[in-house]
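Reading is simple: each integer encodes one residue's backbone shape. An example follows:

___
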Amino acid sequence: MNRLLVSVSVGALAALCSTTAMAQQASPERATTIDEVIITAQRREQAAQDVGIALSVLSGESLTQQGVTNVNQLQNATPNLEVEPAFGGGAAQFRLRGVGFQDYASNNSPTVGVYVNEVAYPVPVMTQGLIFDIDRVEVLRGPQGTLYGRNTTGGAISLVTKRPTEDLSAGLMTEWGSQDQFRAEGHVSGPLAATVRGRLAVSTEQGGAWQRHRDTGESLGDADRSGARALIDWTPSDRLSFLLDVHGGIDKSENQGLYLISDFLTRDGDGDGVSNGVVIPADKDRSKTGWGLSPRFAAEIGRDVNAKPGRDNASWGTSLNANLALNGLSLSSISSFETLKRREYGDWDASASVEADTFFGSDVDVISQELRLASDNDNALTWVAGFYYSRQELNERYSSDFIDIYGTYAQVAYDQKVESWSLFGQAEYAFAERWKAILGLRYEEETRKLEGFGSAFGGATALPPTSVDTRMTPLTGKAALEFKPSDNLLIYGSVSRGAKSGGFTTYNTGDRSGIEPFDPEILWAYEVGFKADPSRAVQVNGAAYYYDYNGQQVLSAVCGANGPVGRFTNADSKIYGAELEGVFRPTAGLRISQNVSYKQGEYTDFIDLDIPACQQTRTTVLIDKSGDEIPFPALSYGGSISYDWSVSGFAVTAETNYAYRDEYPSWLGAKYDVEAYWLANASVTVGPEDANWSVTFWARNLFDQDYDLTRNFFTNASIAQPGRPRTIGARLSLQY
């Protein structure tokens, strides 16, 4: 899977936006000037440099340039963001400034909220659709809730798609790459009637398999996903507007293969735990993998016995955004419905031996309603107040096949219902010419009900249908102060409190205690930062923060008869760090962006299971991890350099971008640490200055770096998910 490797600061959007699909030559006046970036992170249009929060903005053009097609590939785009995929299927596990939630199940909420056109996607696996026809992505770091429908401790990722246009326009992009990779995206937009405009965009991604079965040579990893979005913009008067968004997607892609990081002793299926002597050596080549289904499991999940790991998912949704201008006020309503049908088979032992085969059968429905009333003037006092309601329904069947190691298979089925409502608001008051105070509050009530959770092993009931629930009523908010000592410098400080709901561990368990809810987490965030424009060609932004993390939700385990079984628990911790971003345009046509971030974390109160002791002795041994470092990458660095020039009537853009990700230590032990790595991309775009087409030649992972995205173990297999090797290709872009 291609990963986004360009790193963009708040000011760097200008540098990347100017590198358009047609590589038009910038005028001399603009060539050394950083354009103003307009965002809607605070529910109204503002210049990014005037907003006293840490955020990064990615343009749709830069996403296309880097081949970014889903949220997972954003992780190298902004400081302090990591998106860890969940073992082949890719379900996103977000971490922003070290605040994350590591869970491959479907039922728990993330620490980082994902929004598309202001609609929240509260179930992480729902974020796996194609990203296409994007105007920009805004990444906000730190707790959110006083302006957003959902309450999050880590931050928010807001995707804004392109809107219908006043004039008729159309575009087509096609891309070919290594391993028969193909991607295409097209749109048509324009007026439908006097007050109605429409836009239809479609996208597809195919091929790209680069892994092979270590025994048969079969390929694995071909993409087969498509999406479409239709927007209708109706403005019956200058005071009233409606935006209807209807979208959907299908994903029949093969999963990313896992590879063995150590020798794997397969079992014989009699359940006695004794090896039959067959050893699969550790894979020295990350392109090697393996899979295999038992006939019984294949029949249960509705797959052919020779099926490859993969998915058969379908999603669709609709939203209506209505806005009414009143006298000095603006009233907004956002109504939405989203649904996902997930059918996904994964082979987590990466072999033909049947020791950790899994299947997710999930049906998710989410409805939400948001109402906002905001001031609409240039007074010293501006404010927004809102109400949010959401209802989620999840029906899930989760099955695991352990026939070759434990002589059995496991089945879990349950329903989960989540209902929440909240009141939120934020006010900003400019009490002096260069001073502004901000105060925001949020009250929320959320109830989560796990209904009829039952498990069976080998067809025999292990836990009869059981229901549990949890509820939270947090009061969260934000207080901040902004100071502009000059027109080109903003200094800010803030204190904010965020919350994330509790939940349930829905893994294989025959013990009721295994599904008892874990508590909500509360995060107090203290932050200071600055945004500076010392000249028209330079922007530098920085922030430092300290987090007091109470009840952090941590993936631990309980010791069962067959070894450790994952279970979430709560711990207390602290996290601190800093970020620095800059964009520079020192001469005509040259653009440089850089970012660096550093963070550290430490548990202040955490009692954990001794995983190695449980694996060896099958007994529960608890250890005190208070004072231990929280495992996440400490240092990240990234940047991009591009240069535009003209040759014989052709506009040419040469661009390279690079990213460094520090070592990711594992809570499972040093064997599962993900090593640090560098990645680099490069591209050259050429097109006539007076035409509407261009051709781009690109290389991703230019130096063919070997690296892993995640490491773990299941039953007796130690596995890793590798990153994609070097790919090269070409892109043709047409605009009308």
